[in-house]
Amino acid sequence: MAVDSPAAVAREDRIADLVYAGVAALAAGAAALESEFSPVVAVWLLVGLVPWVLVVLRREPPLPAFAVLALAPVLAVTLIWGIGVALFVGTAAASRVAARAQGLWLVAAVTIVAVALPFLPPLAGHEAQLGSLYFAFGNLFGVLVGVLLRRTSELTRRLRAADARLLEASAREERHRLARDVHDLVAHSLTVVVLHIGGARRLLRSDPTTTEAALGDAERVCRESLDGIRGVVGLLRDDGQAADPAVDLADLVSTYRDAGRPAELILHGDADGLPLLTRGTLHRVVQEALANASRYAPPGSPVTVDVAVTDSGVTARIENVLSGTAPSPRGAGGFGLIGLREQVAAVGGELTSGPAGANWTVLCRLPVATGSLPSASRTLR
């Protein structure tokens, strides 16, 4: 829902003030006509219009002063000359004060004066009229209208503030998502590149052909990473939908295996039948676990990725030999396993990590929609 801007709310308040001022001017004109344009009455009516002129000219006095300046001349005209039409000036003044006042005492005082005004002429010797009761109810209704206008204005401002907070939260969440995307992409790619370069350095003199192949793979991964980063950065500029992410677990594991890290994927069920959101989350978890294993596990030690897909959910277990240094829960910038736990929790899953015997284990459970998933089992080495 779009909420009015501050300028729009101020414009609506301005329009309401002009309407109130127009009603007061018309009532004063009718009162002058009823007095047969008595100069004294005209002067009192002009005095009663002074605060309204200030409102129109944006030189509005404080609200209590406005109430006194607008209602006092009406009181004099009705008491001295018994001109009932002038009460409409008081109705407009009371309604506007109720629409602008923040304190209950001012609204209560103006309400009492507005309701009592129609009954004052008989106290000054003027003939009592049944219309006094109607005027009293009319003034009370005018105050009620002012109170409702004030409540509407306050609700609009609150909705505008809530809308601004929601927009800020949405922008913050989008920044976090992009940061996670960049982290996952860069951490994975640089880890693979480091593995390739490390292997090339060790084989530089003894096996130039393998060294060249490793450096070629490192170059390829760097180019792919650069293309991926361009795609993520493009999300900041493009309004269109981004392309579906690459979520092939076999390709992911083979990338690390080609880089010299013994990696094995054991897949029970068909991961391709999972919803895209579940596949993407699973891919991120395996990617982060492989990157951590490559950084912290002893060189050359194997990593096992065991994924089981059933009708009710997906379970992924990534294990590697535990070294003296445990994987950090945070990656660079704080978007490692902690960020993954947030992502997994957002889709209703659970992610745990820690030592289990001689291995470091990352265990992820993700729910899937109820449905039949094809059954299959395969092992990739």
From TrEMBL:
Q: Give the catalytic activity.
A: ATP + protein L-histidine = ADP + protein N-phospho-L-histidine
Q: Mind telling me which InterPro entries this protein's record contains?
A: HATPase_C_sf (IPR036890), Sensor_HK_TwoCompSys (IPR050482), Sig_transdc_His_kin_sub3_dim/P (IPR011712)
- Membrane spanning segments where? 15-33, 40-57, 63-89, 101-120, 132-149
Give all residue intervals belonging to the Signal transduction histidine kinase subgroup 3 dimerisation and phosphoacceptor domain: 174-239
Which Gene3D superfamilies does the record cross-reference, listed alphabetically?
1.20.5.1930, Histidine kinase-like ATPase, C-terminal domain
Origin, by domain of life? Bacteria
UniProt name for this protein: histidine kinase
